[in-house]
Amino acid sequence: MTATLFPTVDRLDRPSAYYVGKNKRRKYSQDDTNIVEDPNDNLRNATTLYVGNLSFYTTEEQIHELFAKCGEIKRLVMGLDRFNKTPCGFCFVEYYTHQDALDCLKYVGGTKLDERIIRTDLDPGFEEGRQYGRGKSGGQVRDEYREEYDPGRGGYGRAYAESDQRQKEEEEYGKGR
Amino acid sequence: MADHERRHHGPPRGGQRKRRYREDDDYDRRQRRRYEEPLVVKIRRQLLTIAESAARRVEDDVVIIAKSVAENYEDEEVKHTFIDIVLSLVLEQPLKIPFVAATVLVTNSLKPELVSEVLKTTGESLQNHINAGAWREAKLILRFLGCLQCIFEGGGVFPVLEELFGRAVDLQTASSEDLIGLELVKIILFIIPYIMASPAVGFETQAASLLEKTDIIASTPHTLVDLVTPFGTENSGPTAVQSVISLMQSQLQQEANNGWELICLPRTWKDIQISEKPEEQKPWTEGTKHPFPELTVPSPVQKGSRAIFPEIYLSVYANQEFETVPPTSNIASSLLRDVLVDTINILDFNRIAAAKYLIDVDCYFAPHTFVKRATPFDKLRDIPGDHATWKPEDVAVDAVFSQLFQLPSPGHKLVYYHSVLTECCKIGPAAIAPSLGRAIRFLYRSLETIDLDLSQRFLDWFAHHLSNFGFTWKWSEWIEDLDSPAVHPRMAFINGALDKEIRLSFAQRIRGTLPDQYQDLITEEKEKDTPDFKYSLDTTPYANEGKEIMQLIRKKATDDEIEPFITAIEEQAKSLGVEDPMIPSTDALVTAICFVGSKSLSHVLSCIERNKERLLSIGPKSPIARRQIVTSVMEYWAGQPGIGINIIDKLLNYTILTPLSVVEWVLIDKLEAGATLSKAHVYEMISGTVGKVTNRLRQIVGARTQAGLYEPQLSVLDETLNRERGDMQALFKVIEDSLVSVAAGSHDELMERGDGSGNLPEDEILRQWGHRWLRVFRRKLGVEESFIVEAMASATPVGTEAPPPPSPREEHSMANAPGDGDIDVADADGPIEIS
């Protein structure tokens, strides 16, 4: 009933720009299919959220404790490092209802869990395989090349940390001068 | 180089643009700066941000906007944008209504045709909201029209208010329990002051006569007021509570006697001059008059989708050394609260915006209503006697708390109100944190008398809030309460809050935030990720079998492999004369599952899943063994009961446990003379279990009352509803009976304590816990029963047959109609939802 023609402020329960952008790109890359699809269509009844920027040490129980404030949780899938099978800083939370998922975007997304601001995004639904990091070394892509130290997410980016390559490169750079 | 230069002058070439040099970028940007904001965008921005800035005079902005829309009346886009945003602001940002109305008033003096169109759209919207029973929206639109009273012919808004009052009288006469009538009276009362603060003159008599009429309805206490009182009625709480409408009624009468001063309301129109030579003309507010939009108020009026209960005025800043919020003797208390509460509840889709408007509250009321933002409490002492000492932060935060502590339940999930307070704190930590601190102290001092459900909400908010701000709290100020017995409400709060904090974090982290005196409360058990497996000790009875079962569960063995060890325990128990041999065997099985699954919730869930059949078979064979499941889980997780109740919750979904078994476990097996009632996690477990039952019943009622349902589905659903309603009542009966005995001090265990006199200092505390629990569960039952009765009033009666089959074409569409009765609620034995 409150929905007015011009919302006077933005809504927080919309899919993120990241999601919309990603799905748009996919649409245009397929030249054959000319069906114009709204990228938000498959989110119309979504009950799942992608949750990001978790600490590697945050447990299922902590996530449950916070996210259950928006409704009963049907399933919680921890994001794991593809090789080590250890938590790598994201998860999927599935609710029973679409409304609970929207409420979670509005009330929990952008607040703190385990003293980190977490990110939530509406998700079309978990599929087997999506629980693993897609980064080169097994974790999330964003943890490969991070230049800042983040103690909750394995320190520096793994691409640098792993073989001390960063340090080597820096030294070589110095020599060249 | 030549190549480089060519790019400067050549036309941009598609794909190459990306690879431009930096200079190109700067060059382009200079060009873009010449862009000028289109008029429609400018008007939209100005209107949307009206009154937001303390640095600008709102009177100037009002005139600027009105002039530009009036001058561009021919521009359709400008016109429609203006009309739409006016209405959207009225419905979404009620704090701005007086300023939006002032803009429309000025527009009327410049371009009355435009205002006719505004009124037309507004009238249509009002009609739609009235038809749908959306009373909050109707109130806001009527308030907007009330601010425009001076441009209407005849009585303006008053005849509509009179008509609404007529409907309220009809409803109240028909039933003394009616609540919609009260809602209508509330609307009337919260519109009158805005009319009286508008430029309209000569309506004092009409206002007074309307007030005289509303008095009888507004001042009579409603039968349900006791139900929603935040403080126990027996020990009258620190704050006297009054229903919102009775309070408003008396405040308005006082205003009527004082010539409608209404000091806090903004009167933007007073300082507006349009003509250069004001002496020459009649006042600008006396422009063209319009007929009031035509309205039909249905009789009886519709009840909307929001549940209505009487509302109570609650302030967490009552009885302080200085008044930081308006006292209930001042109409500002009601006016500020009403519009802030609406703002909070409407803007749930953007908590950050909600928090911003709350923090900016002082922009939307008359100047000098508040002290300067962030004035420290101690500095209020220096403020001269005739100046207001109201802190905008306190007024804003108070409004959020009034919703967080609304009984029986607020308009949105509790976590929404947590998030608004978090955002307020983020916007102005230095200003808001001390206000929250005083609120926390007030609530902490009220713990003994506040409704139990509310003290649980307080605890939940407190822990969640701290988790967003580094878990910092001045625990030192509660040190002296650590000497009180564990069942004391304050001690129970401290223990409960620490437990909740740990659940959102971890024990060691929380330990680090506490003074020395609190260290003993964080026991070693709480720090253990994997609690010990009691069967590892050979002294534990059935140690060998317990260990074997654990190894088998860890190896994901089949039930056939586990079976012999279960039998072995039961045979040993029988030979030892144990009354129910299934108790020790169940204990070993469930404890082993908890231990093997201790790594995480998913681990324990997959252990349960693998042994589901055996677990499911326990209950039907022995109800006592079923309760042993609860015992084993809660004992294994004694140090971290949060994990335990989570597992219990999942076991309920699997129907391995029944709601009744959980309730009996707490209120019969583990009552501990009532001491168990003081534990926050026990309350959480029981209210969660009862919540499952009532939610399911609401789903069944939803299925039963859907439109277009016919036999035989009607009878099937009706039977399910009646059966489950009976089960629910039986569950509440068990709760009632057990609590009554604790409250009366007649419980056996209570009588056996100490010297049996029931006069130990703790005995009185235990009886109080009994009373507080009783109040909560009686209210829950009352709310559910009235929900069912109300919903069923409009349900299709049993026995209604489907109308004769329609023609084949129509039949196709019928198959997709919502009311085909194909809803899987008739299967009462199946789990509601299995995770």
* Alpha carbon gyration radius of chain A: 19 Å
The geometry of chain A reads as globular
User: How far is the N terminus from the C terminus of chain A?
Assistant: 68 Å
Which sequence of strands runs across the widest sheet of chain A?
2-3-1-6
Give the integer mean of the pLDDT values of chain A: 84
**Low-pLDDT segments, ≥5 res of chain B:** 1-21, 235-239, 810-835
Estimated structural class of chain A:
alpha+beta
The helix fraction of chain A, in percent, is 25-40%
For the CA atoms, what is the radius of gyration of chain B? 32 Å
Q: Strand portion of chain B, in percent?
A: under 5%
Strand content of chain A: 15-25%
The total of beta strands of chain A comes to: 6
* Average of the residue pLDDT scores of chain B: 89
**Helix coverage percent of chain B:** 55-70%
Q: What is the H/E string of chain A?
A: HEHEEHEEEHH
- Tell the overall outline of chain B: elongated
What assembly state would you assign to the polypeptide chains in this entry?
heterodimer
